[in-house]
Amino acid sequence: MKEILEDFLVKDDIGYYCRYGNFYIDAMYPAEKNIISHAHGDHATNGHQKMYATAATFAFMKNKFPKMVENNLEVIAFGSTFPLESVSVTFFPAGHILGSAQVLMEYQGVRYLYTGDYKLQEDATCERIVLTQADVLITESTFANPAVSHPDVEKEILKLKDRPSNIMLGCYTLGKAQRLTALINDLLPEREVLVHHKMYAVHKLYDILGRKPLRYTLYNRKAMKDGSTNKIYLVPPLTFNSYFKAKNVLKAFASGWERLQRQNDIEIYISDHVDWADILRYVEQVEPQQIWTIHGDGRYLKKHFEGKLIVRDILSI
């Protein structure tokens, strides 16, 4: 019988460390070798001696870190396998944002699958998640709570329909903004999408690397104030919060978090993470013997699978 190593991947002060391959995943501080699951700031940092990620992830990181050293970057294609000492590593699409990867690690016949952030919902702007089986599932648990159920995305976007006002829509700059643009383009073609200047460069990268053409223009004050009130202005969180006294617009923030819906004019529950039902569907497909939880609270998963699967938080050292 294959032996699952309880310390195969552990959490330390730098990130998630695999001593059997001498590498980190999503290290927050400089490391010798670091696998980067996707380009969001809580997963992707610069300054490592060697970095492994998809081409799209590196493109977004270069936009944020213009001085990244090319010689330190190892571009990994989805489905290709590469060795890190005695560990074989393969990337599979995670469906979270463009270029986001699940990291499958194989060692002594045991398959350990690190999800990074992932979603099962449809998203035309990024790769669809690819399901693969593993002995140990190392899953994010951001919304691993039976009380959380993400609503239908199309119904949420249609909340913006027939509003007699321009709309300021808060969202994250990378991934969420492009997904929202595509949804608005498709479902609310009468609405013009304006994007904040910090989002504009990322939209341009999606134009080059992405899977769906996007229609949008760079925000300018005159365009927002003049003409028809058919505009949806996408802004990042800090800008959204700074406009709390904005007049003549309806305010909404696209997120799975209830706390970010408070005091807005419209509630828009759109998340790029799995909810409770999707986590359970995902576990059925992966068929793990053990589940190790990261990025959230794994207590509900542990209770749900009690007597069936070992569920625990990842070990910390």
TrEMBL record:
Name of this protein: Exonuclease
A Pfam family assignment: Lactamase_B_2
Residues covered by the Metallo-beta-lactamase domain: 35-163
Keyword terms, alphabetized: Exonuclease, Hydrolase, Nuclease
Gene3D superfamilies, per database record: Ribonuclease Z/Hydroxyacylglutathione hydrolase-like
GO molecular function: exonuclease activity; RNA endonuclease activity
Organism: Sphingobacterium phlebotomi
